[in-house]
Write a structure and sequence with these properties.
mainly alpha; Farnesyl Diphosphate Synthase; two-stranded antiparallel ribbon; about 70% helix
Length: about 325
């Protein structure tokens, strides 16, 4: 494998970044589709529906890329990559039921089609299947990481639910919530790949640091896009976070800079949709968006800070390019 330098290159498309693992990612997608092949036609239809569109595939890609520089054995890495994507999908199904969301990735949500009760049960089924796949790694350390991450995600979602419409949250509350709901699964993806590839402990620690920080950067950008993107591009209504009472970094900065004339405070008190539009307009007519991107970029830099200590391969370069891709979304 040709070694590459750590010099940053212009932002690439995902298919270019995924080049070292593209064939294996295709196997991940095929395996995900296979979970709907069960002798229960009604459930099979729901499973087929929910895995039809798997998004960017960042989490399974992280598992594979984190392993690629070491003892890369797809017999163990494939089920792990499938597991993290199933866990992610399960959290989305549950999130949509909690938030009463109508669309996700441009299609109707499970709860909007079949109801909240079925969505909860389907999410449970997906979590169970994720556990089944992670058990196929036959690696107790990874199985324990999986269980710990599931607990962290659950506590993060509970924290978000309990903190809804609370304008008095601090930034540490936000970052704690972001770690729980997003970064913890990124961290599981990268750590598990390194562990399953028998990477040195120092490299496992680097992969954890990368996953932690990239996950936070990813969520910050996602929160920015809730203000700057379109419903067509996002596959869900713009301003969804505000509507659901979730205080994200852009809304937090707006509250910090306008403590008196603050539409977010009015929104959280009255639940009046017109304050969502007012908040979005104020954010877009300020420096809040670039300031939030700067925070995301700092986390992305922290993610890549110690990657130089792992073997200099195209998979390492792909991890660096992926960090650039994450913070580049919506900036062009």
């Amino acid at each position: 494998m040709k070694a590459l330098s750590t010099r940053r290159r212009p932002a690439l498309e995902l298919n270019q970044i995924y080049a070292p693992i593209q064939d294996d990612l295709s196997r991940v997608k095929d395996t995900l589709k296979s979970i709907s092949r069960i002798d229960f036609a009604w459930l099979a239809d729901q499973l087929s529906y929910v895995v039809r569109e798997t998004g960017k595939g960042i989490r399974p890609a992280l598992t594979l890329l984190s392993a690629k520089s070491y003892r890369y054995d797809l017999a163990y890495l494939l089920p792990m990559a499938v597991s993290v994507e199933l866990m992610h999908t399960a959290t989305l199904v549950h999130d949509d039921a909690i938030d009463k969301a109508r669309t996700r990735r441009g299609q109707a949500t499970i709860n909007s089609v079949w109801g909240d009760e079925i969505a909860v049960l389907l999410g449970d089924y997906l979590f169970a299947k994720a556990g089944e796949f992670v058990a196929d790694t036959q690696t107790p350390r990874v199985i324990k990481l999986f269980s710990q991450t599931l607990a962290t995600i659950s506590s993060g979602e509970i924290g978000q639910f309990r903190g809804a419409y609370n304008i008095d949250q601090k930034r540490q509350d936000y970052f704690r919530r972001v770690y729980g709901k997003t970064a913890s699964l990124f961290s599981l993806s990268t750590q598990s790949g390194a562990v399953l590839a028998h990477a040195p402990e120092a490299a496992v620690a680097v992969m954890k640091e990368y996953g932690d920080n990239l996950g936070i950067a990813f969520q910050i950008v996602d929160d920015i896009l809730d203000f700057t993107s379109t419903e067509e591009a996002m596959g869900k209504p713009v301003g969804s976070d505000l509507t659901q009472g979730t205080l994200t970094l852009p809304a937090m900065m707006l509250a910090e800079r306008h403590p008196d004339a603050n539409p977010v405070r009015k929104l959280f008190r009255t639940r009046d949709r017109r304050y969502v539009d007012e908040a979005i307009e104020m954010v877009l007519n300020s420096t809040i968006v670039p300031d939030c991107y700067q925070v995301a970029a700092e986390y992305a830099r922290d993610a890549c800070r110690n990657l130089k200590s792992i073997p200099d391969t195209e998979s390492r370069q792909a991890l660096m390019d992926l960090a650039d891709f994450v913070v580049g979304q919506g900036t062009e």
